[in-house]
Design a protein that fits this description.
Blueprint (H helix, E strand, L loop, with lengths): L4 H11 L13 H10 L7 E4 L6 H8 L4 E5 L2 H11 L7 E4 L11 E7 L8 H14 E12 L6 E2 L2 E2 L5 H7 L4 E11 L5 E10 L6
Parallel strand pairs: 1-2, 1-4, 2-3, 4-5
Antiparallel strand pairs: 5-9, 6-7, 8-9
Amino acid sequence: MTYDAKEHWENIYQTKKSDEISWFQEKPHTSLNLIAETDLDKDSRIIDIGAGDSRLVDNLLVLGFRNITVLDISSTALNRTKKRLRNKANSVKWIVSDLMEFETNNRYGLWHDRAVLHFLTEEEEINRYVEKVKQLLKPNGYLIVSTFSLKGPKKCSGLDIKQHSKDSMKKIFSGFEHIKSFEEEHLTPWGDSQIFIYGLFKKGGNKR
């Protein structure tokens, strides 16, 4: 049976509540702290890729960011977030798309990815991901990536994943300035421990 990414993720969000999925965070403190470190202007374009129904966008709006794009392959996930945000949803750009098929003339000051990269298990997929980051991130833009570490799970949502280390992430994003990376424990809603690794990178000022 051929894997259909859209069908898979629509099914996840149609059959499970927000707090019934392993990656649920009531408040994404670590991502918000890393975004604060970048000292981004409130008008900077931010894209949260593979966002699902993450509460990052809620918190960014509270902080006063005005130029947020939320992308996910699941329309169910994004509709859930829109419903939660009510009228505030009108100030956010919503994109239902496979990341690799997403095209825009916009260039972003911040690319945020929590738990997408580790689903890319083939080198070709990872290379396409990096090219997409290079294409969409503006010069001096920031990249925040969070993925399962070598101490983390080997599967997620029934799918195989690829674990990462500080060295493997630095190698993948070798064209970017590595600012920092660290491991962090995430507790699922049912109390299981998952070890993530976060990386903060910056694109050079003269690169495409």
